[in-house]
Specification:
The complex is a heterodimer of chains A (320) and B (393). Chain A has 320 residues and is mainly α. Helix content of chain A is 74%, strand content 3%. Chain A has one domain (17-141, 166-306): ABC transporter involved in vitamin B12 uptake, BtuC. In chain A, helix 2 (54-73) runs parallel beside helix 4 (120-142), helix 5 packs across helix 6 (192-202) and helix 6 packs across helix 8 (214-240). Chain B has helices at 2-30, 52-72, 93-101, 115-127, 157-171, 185-200, 225-237, 248-261, 277-280, 303-313, 323-338, 345-354; strands at residues 38-45, 78-85, 106-110, 131-134, 150-152, 176-181, 204-210, 241-245, 266-269, 292-295, 356-358, 363-365, 378-383, 386-392. Classes of the chains: A mainly alpha (320), B alpha/beta (393).
């Protein structure tokens, strides 16, 4: 027991020293997970379907950002106002392409099935097929090895929080993440579009009787979710590089986050993302880096054992 | 009656065949190929996937050697290349090997490129008596598995790992080192050899941690977030030297994370990371500066080879890791075949065991177990985004 106490003492000492550094990185990752997770949760809300091709929406946003950055930056090293302007352009490019790909997915992979009242299993197969098609197409068109995105800034420590350095890259993710997630939350809670989404999520048939255009609402849901997923793809690629398989693991984590928070629950997806990011990051003190994925899924299993509907529960169709 | 009819049919058929064959031979001799038989030399390696660049580097070396041999016209046969794409993956490799084995005109093979893929494929090549000459598979145990058809023109990890450790501890003076490997047969092999020798040389080896390949690099399914975690652990350990056993794509991700975590010590990796694609895969690219990359391979300084390679591959031979070795491996096979009355798979295996041939990188002479006799490890460093050869370790 003395040995184990000693082990814990050492690790808690490291945790105390590294806490804020790990926390900041975890929050940044958490925002990325959250931005992708809302895409899963929104689509689940209106269609009761997990859009497993969402990883490719993320990937296409990453590539859109890469090509725009490459065209605008080339070999120069921008700073100051140019940095802000480039990042905004990158996010918009990622978001637009993400929305376009998500719309195409809805049109090609899901709507025909919906019109024919296909069983849910058919959607799943269709999603996986679309995913394989898209990432292999990207591999064929853009090459099959990872390339780094030209940087719109020189990444550096902007300020320290309790002695831990906070880097510009993390600040970019935090600011973009907060703006987009808050914006989405308001859109769903207060606008007419948000009301339609919630109405379709609650009861599609009744909603259509009340004059809600279901096809249009579903299409817009894909656009909104795709835009956030694509923007997250750009932000992820900025720090990691882009490659045709880049969507796989982050999207799987985001799906985990959505389930963790309560699938179909918008705020649940955001909270689930942050929780997963931070827990993963802090777990490093106690386990080897290789086990970080085990921690993520361990948390999911543990939470689902006690709350099968996730942390906030499946509050489908309510005002978030 | 029936028998007689059959004979007639056979006679008619064979004379018809002869008539058809005559013009065919005529055309062939008009193009200068006369009755020379054509043999296939195979290449097995990654020609798609995350490690495609290493495979491409080699395949152009093989093609160049074959082109040159055909061009001289002195050989009693023509050669052609057939490639087998195993993506460097041990699960794909056996299928590719079986496909190569069933190619009747294939007499010998350059490769397989990766150690894991070689281990998986070699039983099939051995059963078919196909000589395989690898330009790059460096796992130690490949030479001791009883495959008499196995040859390689590079030194194994047993040589590279310890030489790297001596360089890190004695030349660079790092007495506290952290070792990370990607969990692959190759990466963990070289990392473990490094760790053992670093300890012997008097350094404190803080850890030999496995950080598996990520889905970003298709070498695995792990997530890229593990690298910031691993980088944090390296910094927290206070180690002054870091050795990475693995490939360039994942190392690139790790380098970005190490810079973010504020790591300032020396970083060294093996030949799997020795590629300009390492700098491409590193965000930001400057995080790759200063990294030491070692290799049993030398970068080519032969001007004529470099010019011809560039013309064929449309990229420079200077940074094409293992291109010179692939070229030498192919020429070793061609030289083994050269004086044969009858070229067979078995005859090439036997001839390679006796071969002494002065290649471009070194004298190619194999030990009994297929290892190259005598070797040297070169050290390179990334300077301003370019890989520069520093010299022998």
């Amino acid at each position: 027991m003395g040995g184990f106490g000693h082990y814990l003492a050492i690790h808690f000492d490291t945790l105390r020293k590294e806490f804020w550094f790990l926390f900041v990185g975890g929050v940044a990752n958490g925002f990325l997970y959250g931005m992708v997770a809302v895409g899963y949760t929104l689509v689940y809300g209106v269609l009761r379907l997990i859009n497993f091709a969402h990883s490719e929406v993320f990937m296409s946003g990453g590539f859109a950002g890469y090509f725009v950055m490459k065209a605008l930056i080339g070999t120069s090293s921008p700073n100051g106002f140019a940095t802000v302007y480039l990042i905004v352009i990158g996010i918009v490019a990622g978001g637009v392409v993400g929305a376009v790909v998500a719309t195409l997915l809805e049109r090609v992979a899901y709507r025909p099935l919906r019109k024919r009242n296909a069983p849910k299993l058919a959607y799943l197969i269709s999603a996986i097929g679309a995913s394989y098609f898209l990432f292999n197409l990207a591999g064929k068109e853009f090459g099959r090895y990872s390339v780094s995105v030209p940087q719109p800034y020189i990444n550096h420590t902007v300020f320290t929080i309790f002695g831990a350095p906070v880097q510009l890259y993390y600040i970019v993710i935090l600011v973009a993440g907060v703006i987009m997630l808050l914006g989405l939350d308001r859109v769903v809670a207060t606008t007419k579009l948000g009301r339609s989404i919630r109405a379709v999520a609650q009861d599609a048939e009744t909603a259509s009787l009340m004059g809600v255009n279901i096809d249009r609402t579903i299409a817009l849901t894909f656009i909104v979710g795709g835009a956030l997923g694509g923007a997250a793809g750009f932000l992820f690629g900025l720090g990691t590089g882009v490659v045709f398989t880049m969507g796989f693991t982050p999207a799987l984590k985001a799906f985990t986050a959505a389930v963790l928070g309560g699938i179909g629950n918008l705020r649940g997806a955001m909270i689930g993302g942050l929780l997963l990011g931070v827990a993963e990051s802090l777990s490093v003190v106690f386990v080897q880096a290789a086990y970080i994925d085990v921690v993520a899924f361990g948390i999911l299993v543990a939470v689902l054992l006690f709350r099968p509907t996730g942390i906030l529960g499946e509050r489908l169709g309510r005002a978030a | 009656m029936k028998l007689r009819l059959n004979k007639t049919v056979a006679a008619v058929a064979s004379s018809a065949l002869l008539l058809m064959a005559v013009p065919a031979v005529g055309i062939a001799s008009a193009s200068g190929a006369a009755s020379k038989p054509t043999y296939t030399i195979g290449y097995e390696g990654p020609l798609s996937g995350g490690n495609q660049q290493l495979g491409l580097n080699m395949v152009f070396g093989v093609q160049l050697a074959i082109n040159q041999a055909n061009k001289t016209g002195k050989l009693p046969f023509k050669l052609q290349l057939k490639t087998y794409d195993d993506q460097g993956d041990p699960t794909i490799s056996p299928t590719q090997a079986q496909s190569a084995v069933h190619n009747k005109s294939l007499v010998a093979l350059v490769g397989p490129a990766f150690s894991g893929a070689t281990a998986a494929a070699e039983p099939y090549y051995k059963a078919a008596h196909i000589a395989t000459v690898s330009p790059s598979a460096t796992r130690v145990s490949l030479a001791t598995s009883g495959w008499n058809n196995f040859f390689r023109v590079v030194a194994d990890d047993g040589v590279q790992g310890p030489a790297d450790a001596n360089y890190m501890v004695k030349k660079l003076g790092k007495t506290s080192v952290y070792v990370v490997n990607d969990g692959s047969a190759y990466g963990s092999g070289v990392a473990t050899a490094f760790a053992a020798q670093a300890k012997t040389a008097g350094a404190n080896v803080v850890a030999n941690a496995t950080v598996p390949g990520t889905s970003q690099c298709q070498a695995g399914t792990a997530s890229t977030t593990q690298y910031s975690a691993a980088a944090t652990q390296v910094v927290a350990s206070g180690a002054k030297g870091l050795f990475y056993g693995g490939y360039y794509c994942d190392l690139g991700l790790f380098l970005g994370a190490l810079q973010s975590a504020g790591y300032t010590g020396a970083i060294m990796s093996d030949d799997g990371s020795l590629s300009p694609a390492l700098i491409q895969a590193t965000t930001p690219a400057s995080a790759a500066n200063g990294v030491y990359l070692t290799c049993a391979c030398a970068s080519s300084t032969n001007k004529s080879f470099n010019a011809q390679y560039q013309a064929l591959a449309h990229f420079s031979a200077a940074n094409a890791t293992y291109a010179p070795e692939a070229y030498d491996a192919t020429n070793a096979i061609i030289n083994a075949m050269k004086h044969m009355k009858k070229v067979t798979r078995v005859a090439i295996v036997n001839a390679l065991h006796k071969l002494t041939y002065k290649g471009m990188t070194k004298v190619i002479k194999f030990q009994k177990n297929g290892n190259i006799a005598g070797s040297a490890i070169y050290v390179n460093q990334v300077k301003n985004g370019k890989i520069v050869q520093l010299g022998l370790e």
